[in-house]
Amino acid sequence: MVDMKLAEQAVKSLWRDTMTVIEHRKVKKENGITGFEDVETIKGEPCKIIFKTLQATDQQEAAGLTQGIKLLCDKNRTIPEGSKILVLHEGIETAYRQSGKPAVYSVHQEIMLELFERWA
Length: 120
Description:
Elements: H1 4-12, E1 17-28, E2 34-55, E3 65-73, E4 84-89, E5 92-98, E6 103-104, E7 109-115
Antiparallel strand pairs: 1-2, 1-4, 2-3, 3-7, 4-5, 5-7, 6-7
């Protein structure tokens, strides 16, 4: 039988990247006006980002390449849709957003990402 705690430690030992999750929350200001505030909900969490080059399959356009970006992180972390996810990978920080529901596995979750452009 596989010890899931050991499996989880083995998987997470390979994660060299870190992530910070920022939520854009609605807040009521002192003057009564409703505005938005950026709140860090997760900071410096170990993770792993994976880049995969995909061949475009659309027959209408010339064949091109696109990049798939996948984030592996702790399965117990909740990242609300619409959050900004800052990933520090190889010394470079890049802003992403979640592009779909996470795939949850026994020791981690996988989240497909897109580059963050602006708050919705």
